[in-house]
Design goal:
heterodimer, A: 427 residues, alpha/beta, four-stranded mixed β-sheet, 7 helices, 28 strands, 18% helix, globular, B: 341 residues, six-stranded mixed β-sheet, 9 helices, 13 strands, 19% strand
Chain lengths: 427, 341
């Protein structure tokens, strides 16, 4: 059941997703991909991560089911490439800053590269590779190449973060390049959404808010921050090519790393639905002041109305005040006659009796819950930890049994709609 | 289960207001409402002790609750219950503190009080079931309380059907489909005109937009309002002293102030001693007349509106507000001073 089934268009705006499944991951002599087996050359990979801000980098593998806990997780990236060296992916970082999303993109499905280690202002994020059912991360289900690092003595943390971000993206391209000649497991055609809806299907926009709060709390579109900017229309296909890259390290459970943008679950779900036409992706900054939130929301609603949108699904990133960025937009969209559904995590307190939202909508009230952020779960002890030896949040060794709020589990309550966790009253 | 029951000094039979400073104590006996409760609970559960405290003492010494729970644990308490406290504010607060301390100590627990008792808001995450407004409803209140006690003893979660007035906890669960797929399903429902569906109920927040400042107070018509129960002596319209269901209006014509003896507060939520000594403390007519005389405000509106803000429901309060707003607007009043207690 591929995305975009039945939506093949012969025009130049469509994207062909060439899928290579990764079924095992190991370190070896030479980076290669063969029949689901991804081998990574330590030497080639670390060369891509070399930077004056990093004294040392180490690579490790973590696969689903391993008794491994990854702590201090920073960004995660899905390997992709349009040709040797990237061929246009990650515009503004790896390739020239131009809109991608056309032609062919090879992806390594089931694999991710991620960085893990201390970074100031990054909230502690945890991934268990053998987690309980509630407590899963999308990165519990991928074969992960984990990059651990030491900061160079005289390096600014900002330089460390930038080096890791660049390094991960280059590494993601390097891995996908190994599969460029391989027979794909699947080829998925993603239609150009700029065309008119076939058969009068409802035109759906996915409105995705991204954090724009400065250093370590910023997300990049074509390599640029949207801080101070206005909502903009992208082709949904551009996300496959890494048009949106994360540099945001707060609220681990509510975070949208680059990987989640590349695999945007709402885009996939709308593509799969035969009764809806995916018409637009609207990327919006999440400003910190109320007036600007209102401006961005009103503007986003006008953009949607201007391109003939009938219905919209809204997503956010981050904690409390970001609720408003979703709910104000839901109201503005409804005023334009556009049906709106918001995806929101709840912050209902440890016992689940607090108000679930900080700022509720008033006109549009259809919301999907990704679960309560404050509820606690217990992760079992494990054999090995990557990314650090301690979980400072609870002052415990990283391999011990840990009782943690859901808030600490990487993407566990993904506002992009990845998980199956929801929240309801006990009846 | 071995149950320990909290009551205040009144229901423990120690005495009324004059005994409100009674300190916390544990008695190895069943007293007051506990007796009927024990009968309702049957043989399966035993109230092994009563813990009690005076209402003033508990209000002024929040640590009384932890003391009592420690004593209850010494008696082998397996479940701690409190009340019913009806609409009694101090008693309700004490019950809330007792059950919160019990929960903190890891004991199953619950309290009973009226939904509007301020103690409800203090019972952080602990179940509270409804009781009637006053002790006159004791029989029915204890019937419901006993059923709820049995459920909690059995480890069951209480719901609205059990009379629960504190929020039912929302818990994380695994759904069949992902949030993204559920969002698509919800969107299809919305497009099919299913307006009501949602996974997240709207929290109950009020939002009050402040009106623009009065441009020229020297020209403005100003009204005086209060929710402090200030009425003409004798309370001719029988305004309630708590849980008001109405508001009333009285003329200020010919009054330069609200004089002691002519007006009194009937509010049951605080000591009215100082309001009765000088009713202008509640309704500042004396200084308002001075401002009017000086021309610093235009005119005072000829009537004042009053209700009692003590245990009054949000729904009633909202209704009063709407009616006041409409009335004042029609009278071309531009600003109002509303004193709260």
């Amino acid at each position: 059941m591929g995305d975009g089934t039945g939506n093949v268009h012969e025009n130049g705006g469509a994207l062909r997703r060439v899928v290579h499944e990764v079924r095992s991951l190991e370190l070896g002599e030479r980076t290669s991909y063969d029949d689901g087996r991804l081998t990574v050359s330590q030497e080639e990979a670390t060369a891509l991560l070399r930077d004056p801000a990093l004294a040392e980098v180490r690579l490790a593998c973590a696969s689903p089911g391993d008794s491994v806990r990854i702590v201090n997780v920073l960004d995660a990236v899905q390997p992709c490439s349009k040709g040797p060296g990237g061929g246009g992916v990650f515009p503004g970082f790896v390739s020239r800053a131009l809109p991608p999303g056309r032609g062919e993109t090879h992806i390594l499905r089931g694999a991710a590269v991620l960085a893990a280690g201390d970074l100031p202002r990054a909230q502690e994020a945890v991934i268990d590779m053998a987690p309980p059912e509630v407590g899963r991360s999308p990165l519990s289900e991928t074969h992960n190449l984990v990059v651990e690092f030491d900061r160079a003595d005289d390096a600014d943390w900002e330089e460390v973060e930038a080096a890791l971000r660049r390094g991960l993206l280059h590494l993601a391209v390097h891995l996908a390049d190994a599969a460029l000649e391989a027979e794909p497991d699947a080829v998925e055609e993603l239609a150009d959404p700029a065309v008119q809806s076939p058969d009068g299907l409802a035109r759906v926009a996915v409105v995705t808010n991204i954090q724009t709060q400065g250093r370590f709390k910023d997300v990049f579109v074509y390599g640029r921050s949207l801080w101070g900017g206005l909502p903009t229309l992208l082709s949904p296909n551009e996300l496959d090519d890494g048009a949106v890259v994360s540099g945001q390290y707060g609220h681990p459970a509510l975070k949208n790393p680059t990987f989640m943008h590349q695999t945007h679950p709402v885009l996939a779900a709308v593509r799969e639905c035969e009764d809806l036409h995916l018409a637009a992706l609207v990327i919006c900054p999440e400003p910190v002041d109320q007036n600007f939130k209102e401006l961005v929301s009103a503007h986003a609603a006008r953009l949607c109305a201007g391109v003939g949108i009938d219905a919209a699904i809204l997503t956010k990133e981050g904690g409390g005040n970001a609720d408003a960025d979703v709910t104000i937009k839901m109201d503005r969209l409804e005023e334009h006659g556009i049906a709106a559904v918001g995806i929101l995590p709840e912050m209902a307190g440890r016992d689940g009796t607090g108000p679930p939202l900080v700022v509720p909508p008033t006109k549009a009230t259809a919301m999907v819950s990704t679960g309560n952020y404050d509820e606690r779960i217990t992760l079992p002890a494990c054999e090995r930890a990557l990314g650090g030896g301690q979980v400072a949040l609870v002052d415990r060794s990283a391999t011990e049994e840990l009782e943690l709020p859901m808030a600490a589990i990487y993407c566990a309550l993904s506002p992009l709609g990845w998980g199956n966790v929801t929240c309801h009253e006990e009846a | 289960m071995r149950i320990v029951h909290y009551v205040n000094q009144f229901f423990a039979g120690v005495g009324g207001e004059e005994e409100a400073n009674t300190g916390p104590e544990l008695r190895c006996e069943v007293v007051g409402p506990g007796k009927r409760l024990q009968a309702l609970l049957g043989d399966e559960h035993e109230i092994v002790a009563t813990i009690l405290c005076g209402d003033d003492y508990s209000a002024g010494h929040p640590e009384f609750a932890a003391d009592l729970i420690a004593k209850a644990q010494d008696e082998g308490a397996e479940l701690v219950i409190a009340g019913p406290a009806f609409t009694s504010g101090r008693y309700g607060l004490a019950c809330a503190r007792v059950v919160s301390a019990a929960a903190e100590a890891g004991l199953p627990t619950l309290a009973a009080m009226h939904a509007d008792n301020p103690g409800v808001g203090e019972a952080e995450g602990v179940p509270v079931v409804a009781s009637g407004e006053t002790a006159r409803t004791m029989r029915d209140s204890l019937d419901q309380f006993a059923e709820a006690v049995k459920k909690v003893a059995a480890g069951e979660e209480l719901t609205e059907q059990d009379g629960r007035v504190t929020p039912v906890p929302r818990r994380n669960r695994v759904a069949e489909r992902s949030a993204a797929q559920r969002a698509v399903a919800l969107l299809l429902a919305r497009l099919g005109d299913e307006e009501e569906e949602t996974e997240i109920p709207l929290p109950d927040f009020d939002r009050v937009e402040p009106a623009a400042p009065v441009e020229d107070p020297g020209q403005a018509l100003i009204a005086l309002l209060t929710e402090g129960g200030l009425v003409p002596a004798g309370n001719p319209d029988r305004l309630e002293s708590s849980r008001a269901s109405k508001w009333v209006r009285y003329s200020l014509e010919g009054h330069d102030s609200v004089a002691a003896g002519d007006f009194e507060s009937i509010d049951g939520g605080f000591s009215t001693q100082w309001a009765d000594e000088d009713p202008n403390r509640m309704l500042p007519l004396d200084v308002a007349r001075e401002l009017e005389g000086d021309g610093r405000i235009g005119d005072l509106y000829e009537e004042y509106f009053v209700t009692t803000g003590n245990g009054t429901t949000v729904a009633d309060s909202r209704r009063f507000g709407v009616e006041w707003g409409a009335d004042l607007h029609q009278a071309r009043v531009q600003a109002a001073i509303l004193t709260a207690t």
